[in-house]
Specification:
The protein has about 325 residues and is an alpha/beta fold. Helix content is about 40%, strand content about 10%. The protein has one domain: TIM Barrel. The protein has an eight-stranded parallel beta barrel. The two termini are about 35 Å apart.
Amino acid sequence: MIIDTLKTPKVALGTWAWGDSGEAGDGYFGSSLTQAGLEELADKAQTAGFMLWDTAVVYGMGRSETVLGEVLKRFARRDYQLSTKFTPQAAGAGESPMAEMLEQSLKRLGADYIDLYWIHNPADVARWTPHLIPLLKSGKVKHVGVSNHNLSEIERADHILGEAGFRVEAIQNHYSLVYRNAEDAGILDYCRKRGIPFFAYMVLEQGALSGKYSPQNPLPEGTDRAKAYNDMLPQLKALTDKLASIGQVQGAAAPDVATAWALAKGTTPIIGVTKPSHIEGLVRATTMTISSDDIAELEALANAAHVNTRGWWEKDMRV
């Protein structure tokens, strides 16, 4: 019953930070956001061929979707893809909470369908997965995936969808040089064997692997990401220095190399974008080559950092 195959981009554009409150972006990330800046970013993305935008209801509790919808008004709907999520923990008490949350997302995004709709966090796979089926049949959702599910939950969701002629078409989990939990749990192998795209989020660890921040120049004080990462910055320095040195040889920067690493591992990185210059970095990342020796050295340095960047919303995928 699946009408078409999910068209997976090399890189997806993340808008988690777009949910920060106010134009000054005084929220989770502390990003400075303006409508004009985001429109310029979107124009550059479109020109470069990056067309899949990833958001979620819980990114600013609707704000990210609203801002994204406003920015994308400048393009024809056929010229971009939308990825958003149903979060069971934020579901209402109505008769059809998933359908209701989808309708709210569609309204905020100014769209009549979603290209890729996810169950964001597992709460009860047997309960929530069947709710995707009528949304697929209605055409309001073209493709479905699961995020932050472990391997047994992925297999359970795929079985439920399979009974109705559908399947899990994409998987989205936290995956970076310093957090390879999904790889250790066999989820990447599962995806490779079945031809399922694996979307990697937090590839840059909210900026901690960008090379921009250091103990002398920490992440913005007062933000959640500062609380999570600033104490780790000394341990990450050898890794970020190596990312920068590899990049320098190829006319690229540290975050470009971290993204290129994720691409080399066969994943589709979701990279948070808040500035037009971020698109230029993605162009570099998707065109550079990273050697197997560089990959091995980067992963060794990442292991030696001994940091745990698992988010409070995540569980250990290896269990």
